[in-house]
Design a protein that fits this description.
By secondary structure, the chain is α/β, with parallel strands linked by helices. The chain has 5 helices and 9 strands. It starts with a strand and ends in a 6-residue tail after the last helix. Bound molecules: flavin mononucleotide. Flavin mononucleotide binds next to α1, β3 and β5.
């Protein structure tokens, strides 16, 4: 199965996590949404989408500008990851991934890698939480590298079978 890891990143944090995820999926393509075209994305059978959160709980700029409804996700496996900052933005923590989750769910994606526990995170409110669980992998900007790597390793192992290439 062809897999695209598609991310939006303003200062590079989400790009770095995307690289880590890519290192766990041999054969997957890494695509910056800032340079992507819907036609190019629509060739893939499955997706891992990643975004940071900006402003007052908004999607990262390049995601904001992209015609997300033009991505054909119906029936395809889709996993999501989000980057945020719980200490500074506890009222809108990682909202961006929640916005993508809502949209791609509505468009018929088969969401995987969701139902992640929020244990160990400290925040007030987040669109990334549905029924008490995160809708994907959440990496806080302030996580030490080792912790980010550990979380990525665990999460990617849990979704790998859905993207058997
Ligand atoms: C102006 C500004 C607004 C932000 N707003 C939020 C927010 O609402 N929620 C959140 O979780 N993180 C927020 N963040 C934290 C970013 O998501 C974080 O810095 C992230 O690492 C940026 O990733 P990127 O460089 O890949 O875009 C904000 C950061 C800045 C600078």
């Amino acid at each position: 199965m062809s897999l695209a890891i598609v991310y939006g990143s303003t200062k590079g944090t989400t790009a770095r996590v995307a690289e880590l995820i890519k290192s766990r999926f041999e054969g997957a393509d890494l695509i910056n949404i800032a340079q992507a075209k819907p036609d190019e994305l629509n060739r893939y059978d499955g997706f891992i989408f990643g975004t940071s959160t900006w402003y007052d709980g908004e999607l990262q700029d390049d995601w904001e500008e992209f015609d997300k409804n033009a991505i054909k996700v119906e029936g395809k496996p889709v996993a999501l990851f989000g980057i945020g900052n719980q200490k500074r933005h506890g009222e809108t923590f990682s909202n961006g991934i929640g916005i993508l989750h809502e949209l791609f769910s509505k468009n018929g994606a088969k969401i995987i890698g969701d139902k992640n526990p929020t244990d160990g995170y400290v925040f007030e409110k987040s669109k990334a939480v549905v029924d008490g669980k995160f809708v994907g992998l959440i990496i806080d900007q302030e996580f030490p590298d080792d912790l980010a790597k550990e979380y990525v390793a665990k999460w990617t192992s849990s979704i790998k079978d859905n993207f058997a290439i």
